[in-house]
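Justification of resources, computational component.

The compute hours requested in this renewal are based largely on the per-chain cost of generating structure records like the one below. Each record pairs the submitted sequence with a full C-alpha cell output. That output is archived, and it is also reused by downstream analysis tasks.
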Amino acid sequence: MVDFSQLRAARALTGLSQPEVAEAAGVSVPTLKRAEAGGPIKVAEETIEAIAKALERAGVEFIPENGGGAGVRMKKRKR
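The structure output for this chain reads:
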C-alpha cells in the first residue's frame, strides 16, 4: 500500500495542486490533505487507492518497499 509520504512526494513530482489531485481522485481537498499528512485521523484505504490512481494517471510510478525504502518516480515516456 502507498503511504502518506509517497502521496505527498508524488504530487510534488507532478507539479499538480491539491485541488487538482483531489478533483482527479474524486475526493475533497481536506481529505487529500489528511491523506498526505498521515496524522491521527485515518483515511480509508479505498480513498488512498483513488488518490494513488489519479497520480499514476498523471505519470507517477510508486516504488514498493523492497529493503531500500518505498519511493516514487515519474514513469518513462514511450518514444
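The mean pLDDT is 90. The beta strands are 60-63, 71-74.
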